[in-house]
Design goal:
There is one protein chain. The mean pLDDT is 96. The chain has 15 helices and 22 strands. Strand 2 and strand 3 form a beta hairpin. With 490 residues, it is of the alpha/beta class. Helices cover 29% and strands 21% of the residues.
């Protein structure tokens, strides 16, 4: 006789279902990995076949019951295998991560030692020549959370071109297209680009559009780190919008920002433009809730005005966690020269204005993504704290949106925009990815000085029906690894 699946009842919580609709007090019941009932007083009217004596009942009075959060923008491609407990993410209530962003994915490319910007995923992580190989490796590692992957345009360029300071030839573009087509057949959710990075900057819009047309045929999405988030941001938004529109594919603008003091306040221009484009095409944004970004050390981002926190340096590892200005002063050189000496390396760039961040995060098209870099020796605090920070700072303190809207930005909206099936909502037959949190205490504790610090207020996290994480004051604990490699929604 087959073993009966475990039944779990979350009882007496405030149910925020991920749609953005009003919350309601009640219960959520699932059997195995699928939700079977929602309502009030479910223990008194259990569906047929559920033994009340074997029911795992968890009281949630005073707590929120919500869909597991979906991190719309990550670089967790390799870390989900190297550290499958995924504590930085699951301790935030995240049950699914979207990988392969900014044009950088592990597949389809195999090399012994990667070069920037691929090194954002780890210098020796590129072991998978196909998306199928990557999927098998993730499944074998069985991380604590689910993984949905995009295919990186920059990765495709590395896999097919001998020089990246030019446009692809017709033959090279055909090879890129064939690799992308195979990846989409193997379940990838879409294409990402990072035209901001030197290795893809030379690619014309036509190169991206041709690849995006392949994604459109498979019903995927196109996410882009714009060619510019500084002075030329308006032109870059038009380019991304036109590429996606011409290809017939939905567009996601990654980590939307107006970077650099000269551009502060320009979200008053960019957000209306995005809305105008949304009148003709499917378009969304993601954002992380901080005024600092983080990427590789780049001399063109060193302006002598913004603060720059060093996250790693191969030639000078001792500078990790220090400010670039202090290192430059100590060496008796300007900051650009110090940057050159420290490369290859990484840094946090305090290049955004808080008012711009607030406008973007409150915008109705905006999802939440952490954009954390798990391989950095001194990571940006967003790796550990992005999602609870949205609740603590922008919902509870700043009151920029309702609780239901905050949850929607992390769940149902993200599942729809990234083509993630049967997740992101609490509804019958959806997968039981669920988070229970305290709305009064949920908050980030990670800081730029102490970036590796688990958030407060996340009480339990369930992945595919299994209790994967329990938050305690003494020691947050990963209890199980029940994650899966996801395939694109039909």
């Amino acid at each position: 006789m087959a073993e009966r699946a475990q039944a779990t009842l979350l009882e007496g919580g405030l149910v925020v279902d991920g749609t953005g609709n009003p919350s309601w007090p009640g219960d959520v019941l699932w059997v195995g990995d699928r939700i079977v009932a929602l309502g009030e007083g479910l223990r008194q009217r259990l569906p047929e076949g559920i033994d009340p004596a074997a029911l795992d009942t968890i009281g949630c009075h005073g707590k929120v019951i919500a869909p597991g959060f979906i991190d719309a923008h990550t670089h967790d491609d390799a870390i989900v295998m190297r550290d499958p407990l995924c504590l930085p993410k699951i301790s935030q209530g995240i049950t699914t991560v979207v990988t392969g962003n900014c044009g950088i994915s592990l597949a389809p490319y195999r090399t012994a030692q990667s070069r920037p910007p691929l090194t954002l995923l780890g210098i020796d992580s590129f072991l998978h020549a196909t998306m199928g190989e990557y999927r098998a490796a993730v499944d074998a590692a069985q991380p604590a959370l689910n993984v949905a992957s995009l295919v990186g345009h920059t990765t495709l360029r590395f896999a097919t071109m001998d020089a990246l300071d030019r446009a692809a030839t017709g033959d090279e573009l055909a090879r890129m297209g064939a690799l992308l087509d195979d990846c989409m057949k193997e379940g990838a959710h879409g294409l990402s680009s990072g035209l901001f990075y030197e290795e893809s900057f030379a690619a014309p819009a036509e190169e991206v559009t041709a690849l995006a047309r392949i994604v459109a045929r498979h019903g995927g999405v196109y996410a882009t780190h714009l060619r510019s988030e500084m002075a030329a941001i308006i032109e870059a938004i038009h380019e991304a919008g036109d590429s996606a529109f011409d290809a017939g594919v939905p567009l996601v603008i990654s980590h939307h920002k107006c970077a650099g003091p000269a551009n502060w306040g320009r979200t008053r221009e960019t957000l209306p433009l995005i809305d105008a484009l949304g009148g003709r095409q499917d378009i969304a944004l993601d954002v992380y809730p901080y005024v600092a970004g983080s990427t590789v050390l780049r001399e063109d981002l060193v302006d002598g005005v913004i603060d720059i926190l060093l996250t790693w340096s191969d030639p000078h590892p001792g500078v990790t966690g220090r400010m670039l200005a202090d290192v430059a002063r100590e060496w008796g050189v300007d900051q650009k020269e110090a940057c050159r000496r420290l490369q290859p390396g990484g840094a946090c760039y305090f290049q955004m204005n808080e008012e711009d961040v607030e406008r973007v995060i409150a915008h109705p098209r905006t999802m939440i993504g952490s954009d954390g870099l798990p391989h950095d020796r001194h990571p940006h605090p967003r790796l550990w704290g992005a999602f609870p920070r949205v609740f603590a700072r922008y919902w509870r303190e700043r009151k920029l949106f309702t609780l239901e809207q905050a949850v929607h930005k992390m769940t149902g909206m993200t599942a729809r925009n990234l083509r993630i099936a049967d997740r992101g909502q609490l509804k019958v037959d959806a997968f039981a990815d669920v988070v229970v949190f305290d709305p009064a205490t949920i908050a980030d504790t990670a800081t730029y000085d102490r970036p590796r610090s688990a958030s407060t207020g996340i009480e339990r996290v369930f992945v595919n029906g299994v209790c994967a994480f329990r938050g305690t004051e003494e020691k947050p604990e990963v209890l199980a690894r029940a994650g899966r490699m996801l395939t694109r929604a039909a």
